[in-house]
Amino acid sequence: ARPTLAVVGATGAVGTVLLEILSQRADVWGEIRLVASARSAGRKLTVRGEETEVVALSEEALEGVDVAMFDVPDDISARWAPIAAAKGAVVVDNSAAFRMDPDVPLVVPEVNAHAARVRPRGIVANPNCTTLSMIVAVGALHAEFGLSELVVASYQAVSGAGKAGVDALRAQLTAVAGTELGTQPGDVRRAVGDAMGPFPAPVALNVVPWAGSLMADGWSSEELKVRAEARKILGLPDLRVSATCVRVPVITTHSLSVHARFENEVTVERAHEILANAPGVVLCDSPADGEFPTPADAVGTDPTWVGRVRRSLDDPRALDLFVCGDNLRKGAALNTAQIAESVAAELTAP
Ligand code: 2RA
């Protein structure tokens, strides 16, 4: 029989994209059960062209599930993912609750697909969207050149902060549209007023060097996630990583400027070959023709787009590149779906 799938968090920003993706990919599922908070129960959503009623998250809703995708806040995952696993489901969790648990693999199928098969807790974790938006490209280069250090700056879309982030940017854009704002200190902040949404500063006509919560020594939680997750996915526990995470006025698609240092000397030509052939990567690198990835072009697509590949002028072992990836697709829902499909294939293998 085809496995039963539960989508827990079906009504959220990522859940919505997940339902689209489930309708677009080869259909490996039997029943697809849509689960959300009690507040959303009774809503009808379309998946695989069928209207399906959302049920409230409960022990009963997790009965008989083979694979459960969780796209809910950390505390809800921390509580409910182990319950689903205890009932026999393999959980693919997109929260931060289990990513650093040594008994939970952190999986990006193009980079470490094998890791998904060893899951002592019955849980497989999906990385954070910022890590995911670059790691497929970085992993391909690492496989050839041997990565020794990453220095990255992110340009993160507001949908990374959920629907509230998107609503806030749209409201702020309305407040500044057609004005001459953006020429005097604080003028945008005053115009935006209370419509800051989940961000600590206006994001319209601005960039905000902050994502996540404050951690020790001035780092943001988002920056520490990039470091810890890149190390775990690549299997490089001592990799040197520095990240600066920045929110920009983009609805969806995270970009990163990446400085990657390797054990071996690099050439742009070889890096181009590797990236052009890497599954899940599209090379778009011809600045003479105005070709490089931008979030406005990458949004809604599945691959990681890479351009601006340069060898460091001062270090023959380092590359600089610019990557864009849809933070809701490969950055979240698509990677979750890919992992879930590999588990489904395992469960139905003869
Ligand atoms: C963000 N990476 O973009 C976070 C969401 N998981 O805010």
Automatic annotation (TrEMBL):
Positions of the Semialdehyde dehydrogenase NAD-binding domain: 4-119
Keywords: Amino-acid biosynthesis, Diaminopimelate biosynthesis, Lysine biosynthesis, Methionine biosynthesis, NADP, Oxidoreductase, Threonine biosynthesis
Keyword Ligase attached: no
Phylogenetic lineage: Bacteria, Bacillati, Actinomycetota, Actinomycetes, Kitasatosporales
Family note: Belongs to the aspartate-semialdehyde dehydrogenase family.
Protein name (record): Aspartate-semialdehyde dehydrogenase
Oligomer and partners: Homodimer.
Binding-site list for phosphate: 99
